[in-house]
Specification:
Helix content: over 70%
Order of helices and strands: HHHHH
Largest sheet: none
Distance between the termini: 33 Å
Number of domains: 2
Structural class: mainly alpha
């Protein structure tokens, strides 16, 4: 955030913040990182960390339904497949 307010006017910084996380993460951070030495490496590390955070969040959200299916006697493979399929259908076909 300090780089945001240091690099642009206060009005522009407030506008970027109002655009949400996508504006900060995928637009402004890339602009800042391309203008500093080692910025490409910083971006690679940042987006790998972002991917790891997203993956761990998804896995933790699946633990509850998987455990519920395990508690009713299903195998771990079947529980995981059904919970993942329900999540996929819910995300892609139900708005």
């Amino acid at each position: 955030m300090p780089a945001l307010f240091a690099g642009v006017s206060q009005e522009a910084a407030v506008e970027i913040c109002a655009s949400g996380n996508y504006g900060l993460t995928f637009i402004f951070l890339i602009e800042v990182a391309t203008n500093i030495p080692g910025g490409a490496l910083l971006l690679i590390l940042f987006f790998l960390a972002l991917y790891a955070a997203a993956l761990s969040s998804i896995l933790s959200m699946l633990i509850g339904p998987i455990q519920a299916f395990l508690d009713i006697g299903w195998s771990r493979m079947k529980s995981t497949a059904v919970a993942t399929a329900i999540g996929f259908i819910n995300r892609n076909f139900i708005d």
